[in-house]
From TrEMBL, chain A:
This is Arabinose-binding protein. Keywords: Cell membrane, Lipoprotein, Membrane, Palmitate, Signal. The keyword Lipoprotein applies. Residues 1-29 form the signal peptide. It holds the Pfam family SBP_bac_1.
TrEMBL record, chain B:
GO terms for cellular component: plasma membrane. It comes from the Bacteria. It is found in: Cell membrane. InterPro entries: MetI-like (IPR000515), MetI-like_sf (IPR035906), UgpAE/MalFG_permease (IPR050809). It is a multi-pass membrane protein. The chain crosses the membrane at residues 33-52, 95-116, 128-149, 169-188, 231-251, 257-275, 287-308. SUPFAM superfamilies: MetI-like. Belongs to the binding-protein-dependent transport system permease family. This is Arabinose transporter permease. Keywords: Cell membrane, Membrane, Transmembrane, Transmembrane helix, Transport.
Length: 448, 317
C-alpha cells in the first residue's frame, strides 16, 4: 500500500517540479496593478481632452490636479481632464518601463525619479524632448538641474526642484555647545565644531546615511563625480577616495558622526531620532524641509539652514541632489497638449512659484526666487526662517551639478549595497579597496 | 442510441437538429476525445501563462533588450553572470532553502501530530491561528517585521534580547541576522500550510495499526518511527520538494525587508538579483539569463532529490 501511494505520487511530483520551477514568482505577486490613489481634475467639463499622469508621490498627484484646475480656468477653449494616478515607487517605474518596452499602455505624463531616470534614456528614447519649451527661457533655469534629465542635448524631464544640498543645524544643540554656526565655513571648521559639540553634549555632530546620500553630495562638491563629462567611470578616482576617507574619518576617526539610524534619512527610525534632538546637524537637499514640517514637529523654530561648508580646493557650495523629472511619453496621442500643460504646471514662472507654495520645494527657476509671491508667509518660513531664498541667491553661482548616464543606477546600487556598508559599518575595506572593487564590477558590465 | 429512437418515433420534425446534436455529444463524450476536453482549460492556461513565457525567457536570455532595439548578442549575458554578486545570491538562496526545508518539514510534522492528538484542546483555534499568516499580505508582514526587528534598542526584538542581558542587535545589517529574519518570516508564513498537508496525511493512517503496535508493546517513539513516519513519507517527499523549489525562488521575504538593496548584499537572492538587474536596472536579457540558470538549478536539485527518495520507482519494483 505504501509503495502504491509512492508511485501515484511520482508523476505528480515531476509535473510539479516542472510547473513550479518554470513560473518563478507567479503565485502571489506582491504588487497589484491597481493604483493606490486616483485624482481626477476637470471631469465635469465636456469635450475635455483626457490626459493621464503617473506618479509615486501623492503630493505630486495633488499638485498636478490643482494645476489642471488652474489650466481649465485659464484655457476654457482647450480644457483637459487630468487623471493623476499614484503607485508605489518601484511598481510605477517598473510598469512604465514595461509599457515603453512593449509599446502600449503608458500614460501621457509620468514622474521619473533621478536614480531611475537613466533607465529611460536607453535604446530609442520613448520620451519627448522638451527643448522648445525650455530653450527660450534657459537663462531663468538652474542649468545644473536640467542637465540631469538630458541626453545628447535633449531635455527630457521637467524638474520638480533644484534640490540644493544645505546643512540644517539644530540651534538648541549648537548653542548648548557654544558653537556659532556662521563661523563654520570649511569642512575643517565643521570637524572642529563637531568635536566641541560631541564633547559638550555627547550628541553626534551628524549622521551618515549608508546609501548615496552619504557620499554623492560631498564628492560633487569636491569637483568630482562618479562619471566625467565623457561618460567615463571615475568612481575610484583620487578625489572620490579622499572624500570617502573624509566621511570614514568623520565616523571612525574623529568620531563626530554616527551611521544614520535605520540606514537612511527617510526611515521612521531616523525621523524619530532627529525629532528627539539626536544630532546637531544634517546635510541634505532643500526638499527635506517638507520632511521636517511633516515628521519632526518638535524641532519647529530650532532649525537654521546654512550652505554646506566648503572644501579648501573647490568653490562649489551646494550640489543638486535627488529629485524627480516629469516627462511626456511619446506614446501619448496628445504630446503637444501634454507638453503645454507640463510647461504650465512646472516650468513656467507661475508653476515654479506653486512648487514652493504647495510642496515646499526650492524652484529650479532662480528667476522666481526674488518674486514677491515667493516671500509670502507660509509653514516653511514659520518653521525655519525668512531668508531661505537669500541664502540660495547667495550661492547661486557655485552650484555643482551631477553627471548621469545609463550606468548610474549600477553605481548607486554598488554604493548602497557594498561601498558604504563595507567601509563605514563593517570597516573591512579601506575606501580605496571598496571603490576600486565596485568600479571593477561596473567596468566589467560596461565592457560587455 | 435508444434516445435517438425515441426522438424519431415521437417527433419527426426535430429529427435533423437532434441528430446533429447527439452526434456532437457522442463525439465529445467518446473515450478518445473527452480527456482532451477536460484538460484543455489547463493546457490553454499553461501554454499562455507558463510555457510561452518560459520559451520567451530562453530566447530573451540571448538578447539585449531596449525599447526599439532588440538584438541577439549570443552568450554575452551568460558570460557576465558568474561574478561575485551571483555567487553571493546563490549562497544566500541555497542557505535559505536548506534552513527552510529543515524547519518547514520537521516542525509542521510535530505540530500536526499535536493537533491530531486527543490531548490538545482548542484544536480548531490553533489550526486557524497557524494558517492565518499564509493569508496575510507579505508587504504588511514586512512592515511589522521591520519595526519589530529595527535597530533601535526600543524595538521589541531588541527589548527581548536586552532582557536576557545582551547588547541590541542590528538585525537588518549583519549577515546571520538578515538570514534569520528571512527564514523566520518564511517559516511563520508557510508553517500553517505545511501543517495542513501533514494533518491530511495523518488521517490516512489506519488506527488499527497503532492499536496493534501498542499491543506489541511499542512505546510512543517506536510508534512514531515505525507507523507514523512511513505513512507520512509521500507527504514528506511532497512538502520537501515544494520547499526546495520555494526556497530557491525566495524573493518577497528579502524584498519587503530591504526593498531590493541590502547592505553588503546580505539579503540578495537569485530572484532578487533577477529583479534588480532585469527590471529595476532595465536589463531584461540579463535577468532572463539568471532566470534560466535558476530554472536549471531547481530542476536538477529537485530531480536528484526525487531520485534519492525513490519517488520515481514503480510500486512493484
Amino acid at each position: 500500500m505504501k509503495k502504491k501511494t509512492l508511485s501515484a505520487l511520482s508523476p505528480l511530483s515531476l509535473s510539479l517540479v516542472l510547473v513550479l520551477a518554470a513560473c518563478s514568482g507567479g503565485e502571489d505577486a506582491a504588487e497589484s496593478s491597481e493604483a493606490d490613489e486616483v485624482e481626477v481634475a476637470g471631469s465635469d467639463i465636456e469635450d475635455a481632452t483626457e490626459l493621464t499622469f503617473w506618479t509615486f508621490a501623492g503630493t505630486h498627484a495633488t499638485f498636478f490636479a490643482n494645476a489642471a484646475d488652474r489650466w481649465n480656468e485659464e484655457n476654457p477653449d482647450n480644457p483637459i481632464q487630468l487623471t493623476a494616478e499614484t503607485y508605489p515607487f518601484d511598481q510605477m517605474h517598473n510598469n512604465l518601463l514595461m509599457a515603453l518596452q512593449s509599446g502600449s499602455g503608458a500614460p501621457d505624463l509620468a514622474d521619473i525619479e533621478l536614480a531611475k531616470f537613466s533607465n529611460f534614456l536607453r535604446g530609442d528614447v520613448q520620451l519627448e524632448p522638451l527643448n522648445d519649451l525650455i530653450e527660450p527661457e534657459l537663462d531663468g533655469f538652474m542649468e545644473e538641474r536640467l542637465n540631469i534629465y538630458a541626453k545628447d542635448g535633449n531635455y527630457y524631464g521637467a524638474p520638480t526642484h533644484l534640490g540644493a544640498s544645505v546643512v540644517y543645524y539644530n540651534t538648541e544643540i549648537m548653542d548648548q555647545a557654544g558653537v556659532d554656526i556662521d563661523s563654520i565655513e570649511t569642512w575643517d571648521d565643521y570637524v572642529e565644531a563637531g568635536q566641541t559639540v560631541v564633547e559638550a553634549t555627547g550628541k553626534p555632530m551628524t549622521t551618515i546615511a549608508d546609501n548615496w546620500y552619504g557620499i554623492w553630495p560631498y564628492v560633487v562638491q569636491k569637483g568630482s563625480d562618479f562619471f566625467d563629462e565623457n561618460g567615463e567611470l571615475t568612481l575610484d578616482n583620487e578625489e572620490n577616495i579622499e572624500t570617502l576617507q573624509f566621511i570614514d574619518d568623520l565616523v571612525n576617526e574623529y568620531e563626530i558622526a554616527e551611521l544614520a539610524p535605520g540606514g537612511g534619512y527617510h526611515s521612521e527610525e531616523f525621523y524619530g531620532f532627529m525629532n528627539d534632538g539626536g544630532q546637531a546637524s544634517l546635510v541634505i537637499p532643500m526638499f527635506y524641509m517638507k520632511d521636517f514640517t511633516t515628521y519632526m514637529p518638535d524641532l519647529e523654530g530650532k532649525i537654521q539652514i546654512r550652505p554646506m561648508p566648503t572644501w579648501s580646493d573647490s568653490d562649489i557650495q551646494t550640489v543638486t541632489m535627488g529629485g524627480t523629472g516629469t516627462s511626456v511619453i511619446s506614446q501619448s496621442e496628445n504630446t503637444d497638449l501634454a507638453k503645454e500643460f507640463l510647461y504650465f504646471a512646472k516650468m513656467s514662472k507661475e508653476g515654479n512659484i506653486q512648487l514652493w507654495k504647495e510642496l515646499g520645494f526650492d524652484p529650479p527657476r532662480w528667476d522666481v526666487w526674488e518674486d514677491e509671491e515667493m516671500r509670502e508667509d507660509n509653514v516653511y518660513y514659520q518653521y525655519f526662517h525668512d531668508d531661505i531664498f537669500d541664502i540660495l541667491l547667495g550661492i547661486r553661482d557655485n552650484v555643482g551639478g551631477i553627471q548621469i548616464n545609463e550606468y548610474t543606477p549600477d553605481v548607486l546600487t554598488e554604493i548602497d549595497t557594498n561601498i558604504m556598508h563595507n567601509v563605514l559599518r563593517e570597516q573591512n575595506q579601506t575606501p580605496e579597496e571598496a571603490l576600486k572593487q565596485s568600479a571593477d564590477t561596473i567596468r566589467q558590465k560596461i565592457g560587455n | 442510441m435508444s434516445g435517438l429512437d425515441v426522438n424519431k418515433s415521437n417527433n419527426p420534425s426535430t429529427l435533423a437538429p437532434a441528430k446533429r446534436e447527439n452526434k456532437m455529444l457522442r463525439f465529445l463524450n467518446s473515450k478518445k476525445v473527452a480527456p482532451y476536453i477536460f484538460v484543455f482549460p489547463f493546457i490553454l492556461s499553461f501554454s499562455v501563462l507558463t510555457l510561452y513565457p518560459t520559451i520567451q525567457a530562453f530566447i530573451m536570455s540571448f538578447q539585449r533588450i531596449l525599447p526599439g532595439q532588440v538584438e541577439f548578442i549570443g552568450l554575452q549575458n551568460y558570460q557576465r553572470i558568474f561574478n561575485q554578486t551571483f555567487y553571493k545570491a546563490l549562497a544566500n538562496s541555497t542557505i535559505f532553502m536548506l534552513l527552510t526545508v529543515l524547519i518547514l518539514v520537521t516542525v509542521p510534522i510535530i505540530l500536526a501530530i499535536l493537533l491530531d492528538s486527543r490531548l490538545v484542546k482548542f484544536k480548531t483555534f490553533f489550526r486557524s491561528a497557524l494558517f492565518i499568516p499564509a493569508l496575510t499580505s507579505i508587504v504588511v508582514a514586512g512592515v511589522i517585521f521591520r519595526l519589530v526587528f529595527s535597530e533601535s534598542d526600543q524595538a521589541i526584538a531588541n527589548q527581548i534580547v536586552g532582557f536576557f542581558g545582551f547588547d541590541p542587535i542590528r538585525w537588518q545589517f549583519t549577515a546571520w541576522s538578515g538570514m534569520f529574519l528571512m527564514v523566520m518570516m518564511a517559516s511563520w508564513r508557510w508553517m500553517g500550510v505545511n501543517v495542513l498537508y501533514f494533518l491530511a496525511g495523518l488521517q490516512n493512517i489506519p488506527k488499527e495499526l497503532y492499536e496493534s503496535a501498542e499491543i506489541d508493546g511499542a512505546n510512543i517513539y517506536q510508534r512514531f518511527t515505525n507507523v507514523t513516519l512511513p505513512f507520512l513519507k509521500p507527504i514528506i517527499i511532497f512538502v520537501t520538494t515544494i520547499s526546495i523549489i520555494g526556497g530557491f525562488r525566495v524573493f518577497e521575504e528579502s524584498y519587503v525587508i530591504w526593498q531590493g538593496t541590502s547592505p553588503g548584499n546580505i539579503g540578495l537572492t537569485l530572484v532578487g538579483m533577477l529583479y534588480q538587474q532585469g527590471i529595476q536596472q532595465n536589463d531584461m536579457g540579463f535577468g532572463a539569463a539568471i532566470g534560466v540558470i535558476l530554472l536549471i538549478l531547481i530542476f536538477v536539485v529537485s530531480i536528484i532529490y526525487l531520485l534519492l527518495t525513490g519517488a520515481f520507482k514503480r510500486g512493484d519494483e
